[in-house]
Amino acid sequence: MQLSKFLATYFYTTEELCQTLSIDEDTLGAWQQSSLFPKPSYCLQSQLECSSYSGIYQCEEYQDYYPRGAASWGQLIIKHDINSSCQAFNYFAQHYSAQLSKLTEQGFAIDEELFGAEIDEHLQQVWQQFLCSKYGVLTQNGLVEEAVQLDVAKLLIDDITELRTKTGLSADERQALHKALKLMNRALSHGTGNEGKNTLRYRYIDSVVAKYDLSVK
């Protein structure tokens, strides 16, 4: 898929995002300056050559793109009148923790040992990654629940396969791995198809499925 089509299909431009939220660009910038709202996922700089009846000229265009799920986070900021980074983090932490609990109820083995840190420390780390729009690039919509699904699936896959070095798996391990792969597959970005082997999809799904003869269907 062409990058322009990919961005137009799965992302909002700054103008589109602001229209969706009924805010102006100054408000969006203020949210970002105050660490309430993520940075854009993609920043496009285009060198254009235009040919028309008036002649040929060149120009540059700049456009920022946000995942469609960013609108949900903006609506939360508006609804709860969030005006400090501390408030925003608390809502993020509550939402993230609630999604962790849901995954635990679904049978995923989640504990602090899995994260390699206490949950409060982990939440601080992922909050900063959320603000940097890591999840806006890596997940389908940049939603908090997708961030949780991605984080948990990645850690489980690493744990079960010993960082994808284990040569063989037991029946129980294969079952747990298959479940983690399906969880990651639900959360991961569609991608343009041009990223090659640099994506999480290749490293954590395609190569793992091939290595252990699995399927994510």
Which secondary-structure class do the elements indicate? Answer: alpha+beta
Number of strands: 3
Helix count from the secondary structure assignment: 11
Main sheet: strand order: 1-3-2
Overall outline? flat
Q: What is the rounded Rg?
A: 20 Å
Unreliable segments (pLDDT under 50, ≥5 consecutive)?
Answer: none
Return the string of H and E elements: HEHHEEHHHHHHHH
Report how far the terminal alpha carbons are from each other. 23 Å
Beta-strand percent range: 5-15%
Helix content: 55-70%
User: Roughly what is the average pLDDT, rounded to an integer?
Assistant: 91
Biggest sheet, open or closed, and with what strands and sense?
3 strands, antiparallel
